[in-house]
Amino acid sequence: LFEPEAHSQTRGAMESAKGANAVGDDEEAAVGIECYANSASGFQAILKERYTDFIVNEIGLDGEVVHLTSLDAAVDEEIDSREQEKRQKTIVQLSATQEEPDDHSDRQLDDGKKAPAAAAATPSETQGEGTDAKVEQTEVAASVDFSAEIGIAIADFVKLAGPAEAERLKEFLEQPGVLLPAAEGKPAPAPLILASSNDKAYRTSMHVFFNSHFQLMTDTVDAPADEKASGPVKKDSKRPCLCIRVHPRKPVNSKGGNGGQKRNRDEGGGWEGHRRWPANLPQYLEFTLCKENKDTGDAIGVLSRILHVKPRSFGFAGTKDRRGVTSQRVTIFKVRAARMAKLRLLGMKVGNYRYVDRDLRLGDLKGNLFTLTLRGIEEGSQLSISEAVRTLRTSGFINYFGLQRFGSHSIGTHVVGAALLRGAWEEAVDLILRPRDGDKPQVAKARSIFKEQGNAAAALKHMPTWCVAERSLLEGLVRAQKNDYVSAFSSIPRTTRKMYVHAYQSYLWNRAASERVRRHGLHRVVAGDLIIDTGCQTDIDNEDGDNDWIFSSVREVTPEEASAGVFSITDVVLPLPGSRVIYSESVQKIYEEICQSDGVQLVGFAHSVREYSFGYLTGAYRRLVTKPDKVKFDFVRYSDPSADLAETDLARLQPVQHDTVKPAGKAEEGELLALRLSFALPTASYATMAIRELMKSSSSQASHKAATLSANHTVQN
């Protein structure tokens, strides 16, 4: 973000930014962003001068807009009270059990008389037994808690993997040496290998389960060659079937310390597990995360380090922009609200807690509500801007993938993706490690060493840890045999590897959308367009193929339907290439022309590495045009460039005094003018593309930076 100390809107300042706009237009054209949906007049303004100029509130599947309204953990008070009552009842019951005579007290002696329970006990001995009884009672209570936790965990595991696997797990846990120490000299039990599955999400949930419940080490192993998948199977998935292997707990005094397991701080050993989770309480805590100037991954990283849990314990529906103030729902596995409420966080707040049975997953949202402030509006342009907003509401905008989809470097991620799809492995490695303009000195040095010497080990010593893809690739090159670039590339995290090919899919879509608009405009649907035949208005762009119904619902528009005007332009979709999408003849011709120019094969497998072929990907569909919903706008005047012109969730919880922001009126109310605009978009649609349509200007960061700096320069002069 750029937050200059002074700001002034003049025609000259905005004119000086037009050169940067031209550069931004070239940047957009390079990824297929070339057309507009309407002919309304554009205007010059400054976006994201302050973080509060870009506010995003998630819209849940229930249609509710997510806001942070409370920071307390009141939800835990009733739960803790109920648990306290249960503990008291358990103690009373245990006390009653200790006072009852056992069966041996009624045993007859040889002479036919009963043995008195404590006839031979002296007062001092009786007192000692009372002390021992208290210790024993404590041990019994601990044993009850231990057994209860296992029982609760097994009940949870039944829901996760079914009764058969739960029974196998129960037998495994009851073996000496798994959770509790085995007898001295006894060998450790063999690891438990669970049923195989090709569902990665299921296997991830298993890892999380064992780490959270028992802190047992788990890993993933191949299924036996002759075994079919006996666990959950994801149909049409090309992933291999793998098994989760569960290892017994290492003894505290074994080599390697305690094997990474938690130790009882009082006793110095023994299994303690996670803090006891209340019975019948859902396993996931859901809360609202409101953050400023942090992306979702960074915020989750901070929380995971403070809470000492792994980032995979968190779930969220979608990532939110860094440059702004955003509110979204997040889940975490078995962490209490009271613990979260005690966290002292910088640049973010958490609250609005509740317990739920299921974690949040990518795509579990309806969309996002954006509240944007466009500063530095030219005086007298209110009427034309108002008309532009109304036109955006009725015509919508071309649903392009925004520039952020293709990375922030001079070499776009889609260029790497094209090389992978061609099977040009050495070229892909070179593209990732090639020197780039704007690199920081340490990164530039590492890239230079690799380019000039080809020495991956030497380059690795200088590559910073935050360059995840570059470091992973260099590490792979060090380990791999000479010229085995495919193996080296597999060292890059899978999500990042997928990003490259998905970026090329997005590039193809953008290019195809621009070509469709150039040929036929956006006034009508034409024969050969693809449409969704169900009338569904929800989001359909899902690269992981979870919306299976969509593949049987897309078809080609007939000439008769086109002439009759049966469909509207918002019904038209274009494919993201993959094995399950269809093309009309005219649409396929567009895609093939683009692919041929890049040397990419559109259909089938171009090489033996399936991961980098369109034949391996499922594919998806994306609407050609999106119309924003819930559009509202007004004009505000201000004098202080540092004033926040829109209220955030953080500001509502921590009110501060600002100059009153008034609707646009007389000049003396403030010499500066801003447009305050809010609208809702479905997930996977880019707000930057809506603003590009509205302003008829480039969405590139360089253009916005130039506009801000030029305005600041005008004030200083």
Report on the structure:
The structure is a single chain. With 717 residues, the protein is an alpha+beta fold. The protein has helices at 11-15, 18-29, 75-99, 123-161, 163-173, 200-213, 296-307, 337-341, 382-395, 413-422, 425-433, 441-453, 456-462, 468-479, 485-489, 494-520, 559-564, 585-598, 649-653, 687-695, 701-716; strands at 46-47, 54-59, 192-193, 218-222, 242-246, 284-292, 314-316, 325-333, 348-356, 367-375, 397-398, 530-532, 554-556, 572-576, 620-623, 625-626, 629-638, 662-663, 672-682. Strand 7 (314-316) and strand 8 form a beta hairpin. Helix 10 (413-422) crosses helix 16 and helix 13 runs antiparallel to helix 14 (468-479). Mean pLDDT is 81; it is low at 1-17, 101-142, 255-274 and 713-717.
